Amino acid sequence: MYKRVQRYKERLIEGALFLSALFSIFITGGIIAVLFFETFEFFKEVSIIAFLTDTQWTPLFAEKHFGILPLFAGTFLTTVIAITVALPIGLISAIYLSEYATDRVRTMVKPALEVLAAVPTVVYGYFALLFVTPLLQKIIPDLSGFNALSPGIVMGIMIIPIISSLSEDAMHAVPMGLREGAYALGSTRLQVATRVVVPAAFSGIAASFMLGISRAVGETMIVAIAAGQQPRLTLNPLVPIATVTAYIVQVSLGDTPTGTIEYKTIFAVGISLFVVTFGLNMVSYWFKKKFMEVYE
Amino acid sequence: MAFKVKDVNAFYGEKQALKGVSFEIPAKSVTAIIGPSGCGKSTFIRCLNRMNDLVPMFSITGEILYNGTNIYSKGIDVTELRRRIGMVFQKPNPFPKSIYENAAYGLRIQGVNKRNILDKVVEGSLRKAALWDEVKDRLNSSALALSGGQQQRLCIARAIATEPEVILFDEPCSALDPIATAKIEDQITALKQYYTVVIVTHNMQQAARVSEYTGFFMMGELVEFDITRKIFTAPSNKLTEDYITGRFG
Ligand SMILES: Nc1ncnc2c1ncn2[C@@H]1O[C@H](COP(=O)(O)OP(=O)(O)O)[C@@H](O)[C@H]1O
Ligand SMILES: [Mg+2]
Questions:
Q1: Nearest to A294 among B54, B144, B158 (CB)
Q2: How far apart are the C-alpha atoms of B16 and B39, rounded to whole Å?
Q3: Nearest-CA residue of chain A relative to B95?
Q4: ipTM of this predicted complex?
């Protein structure tokens, strides 16, 4: 009797779990369907070739151009700057926390770092605009009030905890026996860290890098506030630009009427971003599989 | 004498793991350390190359002289010491690198990167570890793909590649099957003409087969140290006799 009740319960739970899984798939499918539909509408009016090759993006002006390249150039530029800041610092702090710090320091520093990731991005945005940009202008007089450099750097600061925390987890999971083997051969601490622990944790570290990159590509507020919202096909970090995400909020927050071509650009741009981040995720998945080392 | 151990006490925090251990380990021979589990065998052998330095809260008193120098005195370069005293662990721990890079690791960290030198040393140490014939066609494949016994022989090759003077083995066969164990034992006997070997084992037959000297530990104390034949045929301590005849442990 009891067994039977138990079995029903199990089945009920299984069913509920299945339904919630189905639900999230359904929602995702719905989002993609809407994106596709509106994008399809958009491409009825704008040729896909112009979209991919035109060097100007001016859908909100009288003379409209719909070239996505300037937006991707902006995203690329700010992402590269952010990653240049976040990768080395994140990795070095992970190595420090995992291989050098005492347990006491680690248990204090790690949560403190993770708090950095919990700061609302709008705060980072104003930090970039009102603090970092003026500071940089003292060093680089040519720097515009809005630019890619300052939000890029601040975005990097925001990403450091993601990279350091995930990399540290990966390095922490490297078996003690490997370190002992390396020390027993006369390795210094630095050699143990760089020649044994980092390579052994490579797949986890690479995954943290990819997550950091995805985070930078998708980041919106910081660039919307501090980069200037001026789509421009350039790799010059000193002038105002706009990123893919910054454009989407700009239009979403403005008073663009539903159904207009300006409105439909959001979906075309959104789906382009979706394709890029999807590609990044595939790359990171491939990385993980390729470099996964098996420990028992 | 390779090592002179003088009144060594070792502690993990408050807990004492070695109590007043004193004896001498002869050079160019195999010395076995036996005793029931938890008696301090690993703690002792890890004192000889200062691996216990890695354990937080570990402390040691007394002296361990290696070639006349106290390895625990100030100013000892521990990495240099460990280059001269190699170690093979209980669980095979090859690095997640190729077979070649595992054998070459010790030289690489000393800054040797010349391909022809590395090639020679890698081949030489793999031959000495009786692994060369099995892996010579796949030196660049991952060491993790090898069997447990092969991994352990690779760890031996890795340890001898830098030509240490001493090799410490901490239960090197406890994770291996009998055939792999026999291979490792052959290795150890072959190594003693070049190296001083200290081996921890809880397998008494193994101690009897490979060693010339044996120390019997119990509860952190060295109960008896003598030539192996004497320990196994005419021990002078009642505890040793009880242990080797299997009355406890
Ligand atoms: N890292 C450690 N921290 C605290 N106690 C330890 C540690 N390593 C070993 N011990 C203790 O020290 C004693 C001796 O252990 P060990 O030397 O590993 O024994 P054996 O190798 O003979 O089995 C045991 O009681 C064990 O619990
Ligand atoms: Mg042990």
A1: B144
A2: 11
A3: A178
A4: 0.94
Beta bridge partner(s), residue B88: B169
The contacts of residue B204 (CB under 8 Å, 6+ apart) are: B34, B232, B244
Cβ of B79 within 8 Å of Cβ of A186? The answer is yes
Give the SS3 label for residue A242: coil
User: Could you read off the pLDDT tens digit of each residue along chain B, which spans 249 residues?
Assistant: 899 999 999 999 999 999 999 999 999 999 999 999 999 999 999 999 999 999 989 999 999 999 999 999 999 999 999 999 999 999 999 999 999 999 999 999 999 999 999 999 999 999 989 899 999 999 999 999 999 999 999 999 999 999 999 999 999 998 888 988 998 899 899 888 889 999 999 889 999 999 999 999 999 999 999 999 999 999 999 999 999 888 765
Nearest by CB to residue A180, choosing from B54, B97, B162, is: B54
Q: Where are the domains of chain B?
A: 3-244
Buried b (16+ CB within 10 A) or exposed e, A266-296: bbbbbbbbeebeeebeeebeebeeeeeeeee
User: In what order do the strands lie in the sheet containing B15-25?
Assistant: B15-25, B3-12, B58-66, B69-70
Structure tokens at A247: 């454009």
- Centre of ligand 2 from the C-alpha of residue B132, in Å: 29
**Chain A: residues touching B (Cβ < 8 Å):** 102-103, 175, 177-188, 191, 195-196, 199-200, 293-294
CATH code given to domain B3-244: 3.40.50.300
Residue B182, judged by CB atoms within 10 A of its CB (0-12, 13-18, 19+), counts as middle
Task: Kindly report the protein residue whose alpha carbon is nearest to atom 14 of ligand 1.
Answer: B40
Instruction: Please state the atom number of ligand 1 nearest to the C-alpha of residue B57.
Output: 3
Task: Report the alpha-carbon distance of residue B203 to residue B209 in Å, rounded.
Answer: 10
